[in-house]
Amino acid sequence: MEPSSSPKTTIDIASLVFCCLATTLSDLNFALIAPFFPIVALAHGLTSTGIGVIFAAQPLSVMIGALCAPLVLERVGAFVTLRSSILAQALFTLAMASVDRLAAGWLPFLIACTALRVLQGLACGFTETAAASLAMRSVSTQHIATAVGVVSASRGLGVVSGPPLGGVTFDSLGFAAPFALAALLMFILGCTMLVVVPLATHAPAPNATSNPPTWDLLRVSAVLVALVAMWSVHSSITFLAPTLQPFLTAPPFSLSPSAIGLVFMFCTIAFALMAALAGVISSIIGHAYQMMLGLLLIAAGYVFVGPAPWVIPFVGTSMGVTVTALVLAAMGGGLAMVPATPLMISGSQAEGFSARQSMDGVAALATLAGSFGGVSGSLFGGCFAEVFDFPTAASLFAIIPLLVAPLLFPFRKGARRQTPVLC
């Protein structure tokens, strides 16, 4: 028995490492511009709404890529799709490095940035969906939920890791440096995938029958609620992209892009810690309870990040309060994001769907929810910044996770059980 178990472990590790690296770099690439891009865009004459459009262009196109991805996965396979899409992202990201010099005037700059972010988003949609599908196919049926949870955590880790890297490289080397570095990392990963092919990709399809339509999974209530929760978590992350940097560069903080990147670094550590502990916590309190707790922490963080005008008399404005609130929200994101996909899979199985048949659909819907959250958060942030000051906008946005959290309450009993063996 030992000879057969060892290769299986190797296959799992190789596949999951590629999936995690691809999703981390893909979402890092999306969030990379948060600390510095608004400054550059304002210098080119763009308004806050225009900046929000650029930030929203990529996640909006990710949604389109995610919807098309299952058809491609059935024809060429998850690994080939993942490898091709990560190399495409490297190419489009490298092109983004030249926009600041080649696009003179606000309109050419807006068009060029939006077009490149759309292309990046399409490739990102294929990357995220292929990674989730490959992760599910690379492990035994008992560990499908765990594998997808790890990949989901990697996505969030990329989102919160991008700003520190972007801020430091922009401050040190200029506008082109963050994009060139991200493109290089993705190119190295893509070339490595050309050489190292996990044996799991050569395995036959786990089920000979065709996959059910992706939209059929939306008939499952647990899937719908988990998708709404994922949307709210991703919205809370991307809401900060067009809003936090102007708030922290203005008095009384007056932080540099590098310092803002370090603030995001604290959030990265908090998110990674909670994501790593999410599986243990979920086994104790259940998927639904953990997601509710995470959403409530996000809401609390957004109330205190400004802080909200009605909180200022009790707390006051300080860098310590702001950083603590951001860390609290990041911890909530790590807690709420990881159990969402396992809840979707177990809920689908309870309604008669085979996890092996529906894995591409679950992967596509999870990518779609995260991408829609990215669109919503960026647009909300850009529009709110035009009407309200940051403390007011953040406290109003806190209403969203507060409204979503009670939706998970009906699933608390089933969530307390261990994730079932999926077949």
TrEMBL record:
The keyword RNA-binding does not apply. Keywords: Membrane, Transmembrane, Transmembrane helix, Transport. It is a multi-pass membrane protein. InterPro entries: MFS, MFS_dom, MFS_trans_sf, MFS_Vesicular_Transporter, Tet-R_TetA/multi-R_MdtG-like. One of its GO terms (cellular component) is membrane. Pfam families: MFS_1. SUPFAM superfamilies: MFS general substrate transporter. The keyword Transmembrane applies. Signal peptide: none annotated. Residues 15-413 form the Major facilitator superfamily (MFS) profile domain. Gene3D superfamilies: MFS general substrate transporter like domains (1.20.1250.20). The chain crosses the membrane at residues 53-73, 80-99, 105-123, 144-163, 175-197, 217-239, 259-281, 293-312, 318-340, 361-381, 393-411. It is found in: Membrane. GO terms for molecular function: transmembrane transporter activity. Belongs to the major facilitator superfamily. Vesicular transporter family. This is Major facilitator superfamily (MFS) profile domain-containing protein. The lineage of its organism: Eukaryota, Haptista, Haptophyta, Prymnesiophyceae, Prymnesiales.
